[in-house]
Fold each of these.
Amino acid sequence: MEWYLVILMILGPLLVLMSLGLPVAFAFLAVNVAGAFLLMGGLSGLAQVILNTVDSLSSFTLVPIALFMIMGEVMFQSRIAVDLMDTLDKWFGKLRGRLALMAVGGGVLFSTLTGNSMGSIALLGSSLTPEMEKRGYKKAMSLGPILGSSGLAIMIPPSSLAVVLGVIAELSIGRILIGIIVPGLLMALLYVIYIMGRCWLQPHIAPVFNVPKVSVSEKLQATAVNILPLTLVVFAVVGVIFLGLATPSEAAATGALATLILAAAKRRLSWQVFSGSIFSSANISVMVLLIVSGAVTFSQLLAFTGATYGMIDAVLSLQLSGDMIVFLMIMMVVLLGMFMGPLPIMLITLPIFVPLVVNLGYDPIWFAALYLVAIETGATSPPFGAALFVMKAVAPPDTTMRDIYVAAIPFIICDLLAILILFMVPELVTVPVEMMFR
């Protein structure tokens, strides 16, 4: 059977099932079972699917997913994240666009602590957006910065999606986590430049307002109490990897432990906070693990039938440069993000894209960083980007989807600019990785 017929035979039913509203994990399970039976030799193929599922779920590399989820839930449920925003508020003072800049600063700091973009939107949107609008901020500047900066949770460690990408693509998770740090900071810098530039050109979009004067000593005290302790959590995740003291899985464990210790030190680690965090993270983690197991079997189906290698040969035979092929793949991820969630996109495209990138001779870690920026861009892109609907849920009642779409566009442009910069300067990804793993 021709490779394109195999891919159509597998992807067609998968897309139909997902469009009918079947959860992604169960859609992949159904397609994998049917595909294994038809394409891998009947019952023996089904037995192989079971073995693949057990092997994929018993991998030690999947441990960080659950532990990163626990970190994020503890941060939010113990209100440590709220303390962080209060401290940032003291430092920004009367700076024009201060609340929009707070959203970016909060997004960066939350991303180093939680790795959960939707949780970041929920917190920042519910706490900052009403205050922004009360102060006269226009919708473009009250919604956009939160949409953009919350996606940084994908790009700055700890990042659960980076772990999932590493497992599906069979790449080093530690190298991916280090490789995405500079791209994440680059995106934050572009957001800040845009906010400050637009506030300077259109002062009415983010009016200056009087804020209570806070002494330097009070600022320093708030920083010492609410921000400095968080550096221990960041070190427990990123620092131990940088120093070679722990693997990514072990770093996720030290990060979760540091988060629990911090909550206990603030006397907020009640049984309600602990049990709620564990329960919420378990719900999300189980579904993610089911999806990952389906992705592994899906990629093996493509490889077993020869579809992966057929597609690689077909693409390599095109009269296109390697740069153009990689760029088109990244743009395809952005376009898919307008209609699908991040996990389905990763499951469908990574088993095809990564072997192709390797065959073209590119660094797969650099591609992984580009891919995650594209995933983040797609999640905030109209009409059906997942982040847009989370924003609608927490925004003031008079907010329309059109308001959210318009507010998201400048930050999508910033993301596309970041993709272009990373595409032209791959050293932003490769040099930190080489320094770390020399």
Amino acid sequence: MKDKPTVAFLTLGCKVNQYDADAMRAVLDYGGFRVCEAGDVADVYVVNTCAVTAEAERKSRQAITRILKLNPEAEIYVCGCASQNNFSQFARDGVKFISGTRGKLTLAEELVKKYGGEDDGFFDKIVTSDFETGDKYEEFRGTLTMRTRHYIKIQDGCNNFCAYCIVPYLRGRSRSRSMSGVLKEIATAETSCREIVLTGINLSAYGRDIGTSLADLLLALQSCDLRVRLGSLEAGVIDEKFLDAAKGMKNFCPHFHLSLQSGDDGVLKDMNRRYTTAQYLEKVALIRSAFPDAAVTTDVIVGYPTETADAFERSLAFCKEAGFADMHVFPYSSRKGTAAGKLPVLPSSEVAERGRRMTELKHVLSTEYRLKQLGKSVEVLFETKEDGLWCGHAPNYVKVYAMDGARNTVASVVPTALFGDGVRV
């Protein structure tokens, strides 16, 4: 092993996991590790796992196999939601240490000690003794991102306990970062990026435990020079104060990912979602009254155990009525330990057919929304190059392709045609 080994991160799942990996990456970079891309051959790998679905857990396990094919001698350290849920599935050759959702910064710090000759025995056991989720926000001390958009984690955990969701059991109760901590990190980010994304496990709950709110944070960001984008939101957070705060910002991105899960009231009640379809539609109307061209996107689960054929048809019709700019469509994934995990699942062929039809609607709605963007001047943050074209995102998160561009720069362009999953100049 080299004195200062190369380290790569394989991170699955949500933006919160991405942020946690960025925070660990910063510690290791400062400690002398040479940080490389996830697909590169490295000496040390940190796998930050996800457990939101059974498929996410499977991919987390597969990550270990991929690493060992790249470098059979690699040392692998595992953390995150899937290992919190079931650490034994990662106890295999090559894996030196397994922890859960808590103490990720400690893991990074101990790696620095180990490879710096100050090994204090932290890694003597393959599994940490502490799989508690914690009840206070775990403050990190900075991040090192490989992206042009900078994730800012402001909240962790969730109190909602939706019937299908295992995340509250793995991430713990909702806890918010101090506003001063958030503002300090944003000020630091202004020197290296053009856009920040505020994220959390339940972003809408930000501030409830510390006497503030997400709207108050947006008010504190009125003069922020960076583009500010929000992660996934719950319908309940949308009100006049919140939207007025967003409208008052200098560089707010009008993209609202408003979690739905089902367009049927009976299924919503069974899921323990705390709104009706009528209430949800009122929130969509409020958003569009404040931001007429806003992109309202959502998540939809098909094949929930109590979703009848008629309930699915109502869900499909509701999504069409809401006119989403895009939808993330998920087949229901039964999670042991949740309320819904005790229910018999629907036939896989029926779930697959519902997924096909909902995905078909997704493409129709996405095309309709993207067509409305043609001929309009938009400010695009260019991020990567794909097949010879620069691509990036407009404020409403529509993907834009162009011949000319440069990484981490914003340019004003006019899209003229649909192209792939976005539009093209």
Amino acid sequence: MTFYVEVADVEAALATIESKGGQKAFGPHPVPTGAIIAGFTDPEGNLVGLVQQPVKQ
């Protein structure tokens, strides 16, 4: 099972995660809803997803 954490900016979150020892696993990728998803592994190897909601216009 993978759970997703909502963040304001996927790219910025991945940069912070990588600076603290995490590793990007996939993404960022747009999905049909307009959201952007990505995933990373923490230093223990656990996969966690990130989701950035689409900008409301």
Amino acid sequence: MDNLLFTLKEKLRDPKNLALACIALGLVLGLLIGYVLLPVKWTDASAANLRPDLRVEWLRNAITTYTLTNDSVRAKAAYSELGNTANATLSDLVKNPAYLNSEQINRFTTAVGSASPANTDNGASGSQVTITPTEETEGGSNTKLLGFLFLFLLVAGGAAAYYFFFRNKAGGQRAPLDDVAARPLPATNVSSPAPQTAAVPNTSATPMRSGSAYANPPLSSTARPAVPQAKPAPEPRPEPAPAKDYGKPIAQFMTTYMYGDDLYDELYSFASPNGEFLGECGASISSSQGNSEPRKVNALEVWLFDKNDVQTITKVMMAGDAFEDTNLRSMLERKGEPVDVQLGRHYDLDTATLHLEAKVVDLAYGALTSQAKGYFQRFTLELAIYKKS
């Protein structure tokens, strides 16, 4: 059951699958509401809602009743029940009068205020009936109103799903990545320059003038000439430790932060090949400069959760100028290890059984007036998860 729920959750992370699921759920709910919970009930429906043959029968009975009673009020009421189908029904009746004759039909049409009908099969003649309906049927309008209501709910649900699920995930859509081998930084070998020995001037050949700035001090028989000391050679940078080989990653993700995405917060779950849940990783906003909108984000945090470990490992990736701010860096140390972001660099996070390799594949800054690397304009990370043996 857990594996099924995990698989379903992973499938729904795809926007296309989530949209299809929302549409299917909306249709099911609409059918359930329309046919089970709130079915359409017809009460006091007019004759206009009958089948065409039953409408003709209705009109035929109305003409017969009028012939017997001569009640024009009831005749008009019966005819108005047909609504906008009255003309068509009367034309069908003229073509198939059955037991009625032309005189009965003419008297009825005169009573309801219409012209004489067309020729009947009995040989009577007259003009085509033209009657304006006096009452609209309500059943059809109610059905249309209900249909528009369900359509509105479906569109509103889709818009809400886009706003809450897709709008803030557009920049962090996962994509399969190629395996990227870790490349250590090139080391700089600095050789120590040979010390230079200054030549001792021959004081016996050139007389010294007292008080001259260029005069060499007198040398005693036991004193040694002053030799300028050579500057100590800078220590060479230590060679980076070779990257450990963890084999093939069990999961890979790509996430992108874009300037203006103030709700940027990505979370990815991953499992072993047999479906066992192993942990989660993600990236989110850690710090921003000032209170302006959109936020000028100058630090993002990347984290790794291992179900077999008691703590979550976090690294705070700071913009170049923000990293130089000692106070900000010390404040962000509470969240995790601050690092200076550089394009192409790898940053490692390790837990008890997992290893995360985060590589900066795209980086662009939004320059401030006094800081060329003040905040992130665009920041893309590759996240590769490895399981330690």
